[in-house]
Each structure stands twice: as structure tokens, then as C-alpha cells.
Design brief:
The protein has seven helices and no strands. With 159 residues, it is mainly α. The chain has a single domain, classed as Up-down Bundle (Ferritin).
Length: 159
């Protein structure tokens, strides 16, 4: 958004990418999500319908943040480093539900979630350095990952 105009094609691609990653991960781990219903869950576990709603919102926010960085006036090298951090955390995000739901490896998923949180935080900091709005758009994601870690650990300990 170097000149203040929205580049709709780039924005749509930036938003579609994390939504597609999330949808594919959900599709590949669908069976495990059914098994999740049978597990004991920690006290603050929300109903199942909350997860796809929250993740959709978070993926849209991630996509908008990536668009702000991608179209910024920052140096190409700084943008490349930030987008590399973004791609890495998005790949880690894709893998977590496979570990948790598809494999049922809740302890490994918890450890992976800690790594994912660190990667997402690094990405948010890189994004924020380029565009403060992009960094702030990652805040709900970081909060959700922290909450997801609580839920993940709770499921591990209770089952």
C-alpha cells in the first residue's frame, strides 16, 4: 500500500493463503476432531463451533497483516525476511492440528505449539517493525495461541 491505494488482487491473495492453509489442515485432521469430542477437556474449553469461527477470523487478520507488509515501502530485504518469518509460522500452524488431531499426540502438539507461539511472536515483531498495524493484527492470534496451549496442555493432562 505504498501510495495509500488498496491493491485488491494482492489483498485477496494474502487473505486467501492462510485461509487455504487452515482449511487444508482442517480437512486433513477432520477425523481426529471427531475423536476430540470424546476427550476430557479443561474448564475453559469452548464449544466446538467456536474453533472454526475464531480460526477464520485469525487467518483473515494474518492475511491482512501480510498484505500490509508485502505492499509496504520497506526495503525488499526487510519485506523478504518478514514474509519468510510469516511463511515459517504459517507452516508450523499447518502442522499443529495434524499432530494434535490426526496423530493424537497431545504432548508433542503442546511442545509444537510453544514453537509455533515463538515463531508467531517473531513474525509479529518483524511485521510490526515494518508496519505497526500489521504487528497489532497478530495480537489476537498470539492470545489465541496462548489459550490453545492451555487447552492443549489440559487435554494432555486430563487424558
Amino acid at each position: 500500500m505504498k501510495n495509500g491505494r488498496i491493491k485488491w488482487k494482492q489483498l485477496l491473495i494474502c487473505v486467501a493463503l492462510p485461509l487455504a492453509v487452515g482449511a487444508l489442515a482442517g480437512l486433513l485432521s477432520r477425523r481426529g476432531m471427531e475423536d476430540y469430542q470424546k476427550l476430557y477437556k479443561p474448564l475453559l474449553a469452548p464449544p466446538s463451533w467456536v474453533f472454526p469461527v475464531v480460526w477464520t477470523i485469525l487467518y483473515v487478520l494474518m492475511g491482512v497483516a501480510s498484505y500490509l507488509v508485502y505492499t509496504s515501502a520497506a526495503s525488499p530485504e526487510r519485506i523478504r525476511r518478514a514474509m519468510s518469518a510469516y511463511a515459517l509460522q504459517l507452516a508450523a500452524n499447518f502442522i499443529w492440528p495434524l499432530i494434535f488431531f490426526a496423530l493424537g499426540a497431545t504432548l508433542a502438539a503442546f511442545i509444537w505449539l510453544i514453537v509455533l507461539f515463538a515463531l508467531a511472536l517473531a513474525c509479529a515483531l518483524r511485521f510490526g517493525y515494518i508496519d505497526a498495524r500489521a504487528g497489532r493484527l497478530f495480537a489476537p492470534y498470539l492470545v489465541w495461541l496462548f489459550f490453545a496451549a492451555y487447552l492443549n496442555l489440559g487435554v494432555y493432562l486430563l487424558n
